[in-house]
Amino acid sequence: MAGFDKRVNSYEEALAGLEDGMTLLAGGFGLCGIPENLIAEVRRRGTRDLTVVSNNCGVDGFGLGLLLEDRQVRKVIASYVGENALFEQLLISGELEVELTPQGTLAEKLRAGGAGIPAFYTATGFGTLIAEGKEIREFNGRPHILEQAITGDVAIVKGWKADHYGNVIYRHTARNFNPLVATAGKITVVEVEEIVEPGALEPGEIHTPGIYVDRVICGRFEKRIEQRTLRG
Fold first, then answer.
1. How far apart are alpha carbons 99 and 30 in whole angstroms?
2. CA triple 159-72-35, angle to 5 deg
3. Are 29 and 196 in contact (CB under 8 A)?
4. Among its keywords, does the record have Kinase (predicted)?
């Protein structure tokens, strides 16, 4: 069964094949469940001219915000600009191409891409700038716009546990966009907090089957909190 072992020993090996101009899919929501070490490796490699697809683009100085700082990103497809002042600045100045997409639509674009569905109709965004230039059809008396699915060259994902075969479990809200991203990459790389022996994961608990995963690596994580709120 050695050929089914997806484990790699270094982040350099984990992102082998990532090249300039590729489309990079990244899991996470805010700073929750982001593949922070894989992002740091993208920065270290200096890969440029990337199209990044993620719910948002990190914050100043952390997460995907690091790639913005080094001007490694050409285009961002996201649903939220968030707390990233540099993201906002680059958008306004025209230095960064940004395609803002409703959050549910973005999730479905990734899910459809992973399922091999090229496009779908949704009522979300009709009558707004989102619908400009897109095909419109009426279903049950309601207009819908045609949205194209999203796939990527490389998908980077943060899980909680995985086994040698790349079966992955996510923990609580850190699950967010990660399972969708994991299915939509030509190469999917997952970093986790723990790698367990084959058979240690209950089949019913697995969120991403190993068939979607090409490489898995165990890392240590800062898990920075975007906005800390304390109850008095």
1. 17
2. 10
3. no
4. no
Per the CB < 8 A criterion, the answer to whether 208 and 179 are in contact is yes
The answer to the question of residue 73 being in a domain is: yes
Domain, as residue range, for 166? 11-118+150-218
pTM beyond 0.90, yes or no: yes
Rounded distance between C-alpha atoms, residue 134 and residue 214, angstroms: 34
Q: How far is CA 157 from CA 109, 126, 230, in A?
A: 17, 31, 29
Cβ atoms of 156 and 187 closer than 8 Å: no
* Within-domain flag for 94: yes
- Structural domains counted in the chain: 1
Name the 3-class secondary structure at 228. Answer: coil
| Residue 125 belongs to a domain | no
Q: Cα–Cα distance between 16 and 39 in angstroms, integer?
A: 13
CATH number of the domain within which 77 lies:
3.40.1080.10
Residue 1 lies in a domain: no
Q: Decide if 158 contacts 14 (C-beta within 8 A).
A: no
In tens digits, what is the pLDDT along the chain, a chain of 232 residues?
455 999 999 999 999 999 999 999 999 999 999 999 999 999 999 999 999 999 999 999 999 999 999 999 999 999 988 778 999 899 999 999 999 999 999 999 999 999 999 999 999 999 999 999 999 999 999 999 999 999 999 999 999 999 999 999 999 999 999 999 999 999 999 999 999 999 999 999 999 999 999 999 999 898 877 666 767 6
Contact present, 31 and 58 (Cβ < 8 Å): yes
- Return the ∠ at Cα 154 (arms to 153 and 158), rounded to 5°: 155
